[in-house]
Amino acid sequence: MEHTIGILGGMGPAATADMLSKFVHFRHAHRDQQHIPVIACSIPDIPDRSACLLSGGPSPYDYLERYLHLLEHAGAECIVIPCNTAHYWYDRLHAAASVEMISILDATLSELPSGCRAVGLLATDATLATGLYQQKIEQRGLTLLTPHRERQQAVMQAIYALKGGDEAKAQALLFPQIAYLIASGADTLIMGCTEIPLVIGRQTARFDCRFIDSTAALVRAAIRWYEGKQSEITPPAVYLATSTID
What we know:
Elements: E1 5-8, H1 13-26, E2 38-41, H2 49-55, H3 61-74, E3 78-80, H4 90-96, E4 100-102, H5 104-109, E5 118-122, H6 125-129, H7 134-139, E6 143-145, H8 149-163, H9 167-183, E7 188-191, H10 196-200, E8 210-213, H11 214-233
Parallel strand pairs: 1-2, 1-3, 3-4, 5-6, 5-7, 7-8
């Protein structure tokens, strides 16, 4: 089982399942054996990341490191984390890891279209408060737009509604905030929480805006990592000359 990718998930379980589905959907495979080898760790006892960062709740770090090493011991050679807010601890986890890791932030920002000027960010309160995306976006000379106060509260309520299984409520809360960011000038929207793509589903076409799905971006980056590793071990083709003897 070469070049296995480990998913450090459970934040939340639906986002982890969405990532697994995207690994299957995005991989151009014609049979089982051509799909990406993946080990998923979806243990949902990891403390709430936002509660830790914003209100002094218990830290998720020890859990994250424990499950990271669990994936390493299981054979993962590259680890991805389908949670944007958890990337507050990414550098520390990367330093503790003995295998490669791919950042969801870098993967997402690599998909910004060349012509975009103003980027809207839909994310948790903690992702916004810690500036995980802001500095990287502004370094690119782009305008960053985020919902204000009550609108951001609605984004958080939508995320927790989705976690609670109420998709209709989540959409009713989130869609006006998307429309607001677009009306404010956003030409590209980053779905900077891995629950957001699950809320929006296939309804991106109703909005006059380009969307970047952070989960999808991370999966594509992981598939590129895997294919790069595969190309390193693929031996060159050998062509045998044949001749006939009269």
